[in-house]
Design a protein that fits this description.
The radius of gyration is 17 Å and the shape is globular. Helices cover 7% and strands 41% of the residues. It has two helices and 14 strands; from the N terminus they run βαβββββββββββββα. The strands form four sheets. Strands 1, 8, 9, 11 and 12 form a five-stranded mixed β-sheet that branches. A five-stranded antiparallel β-sheet has the order 2-10-7-13-5, with no helix packed on it. A two-stranded antiparallel ribbon has the order 3-4. The longest helix has 9 residues. With 179 residues, it is mostly beta strands. It starts with 12 loop residues before the first strand and ends with a helix. The model has no long low-confidence stretch (mean pLDDT 91). The protein has one domain: Ureidoglycolate hydrolase (Jelly Rolls). A hairpin with a 4-residue loop joins strand 3 and strand 4.
């Protein structure tokens, strides 16, 4: 449901960087690798250990899925958050399209919004509060790595204070990421 633009506090969009996102998870991108390894008879370069899959709580195992996300129209109201208390959850774009990542320390804290650009995935730490996937482009596809197994691994909460992503200037966010 849309609200009038002035009704909700607007979230500023930050560039996604490992330093800014570290409290919530990992940024999965080649630039985050501490080293590279030549593999496949030196015809490929591996960027190892970009994130850790955390899924073994209560007998869980890792699961790899693929999803196609519908584009979200702006303005968009942030009304809820979710977390996965039993495991991490990673989203890795399969096409070079931008998407938004909204996270919060807890449901009572103001959320932060990040613009993930081409080549950036995210891995939410176990228990990190985040908004469900926010694709900006049609036919955005993601590889998802998360936990499957016994126990309730998805908690959702409605926010007492809602927020709005009113507009997005992708070019200015990308420029600030390079600085």
């Amino acid at each position: 449901m849309k609200s009038p633009a002035s009704a909700l506090p607007a979230l500023a969009i930050e560039p996604l960087s490992q330093a800014a996102f570290a409290r919530f998870g990992d940024v999965i991108e080649a630039a985050a690798a501490s080293a590279t390894v030549a593999i496949n008879d030196a015809t490929a370069v591996r960027y190892p250990a970009l994130a850790t899959v955390d899924c073994q709580a209560e007998g869980g195992t890792a699961m790899i899925s693929r999803c196609r996300a519908a584009a979200r129209a702006l303005p968009f109201d942030i009304r809820l958050l979710e977390r996965h208390p039993l495991g991490s959850q990673a989203f890795i774009p399969l096409r070079p399209l931008a998407y938004l990542v909204v996270v919060a320390k807890d449901p009572g804290s103001p959320p932060r919004a990040f613009l993930a650009t081409a080549g950036q995935g995210v891995n939410f730490h176990r228990g990190s509060w985040h908004h469900p996937l926010l694709a900006l482009e049609p036919a955005s596809e993601f590889l998802i790595i998360d936990r499957v197994g016994p126990g309730d691994n998805c908690e959702t909460v409605a926010l007492d204070q809602c927020y709005q992503i009113a507009r997005l200037d992708v070019a200015s966010v990308r420029r600030s990421r390079r600085q």
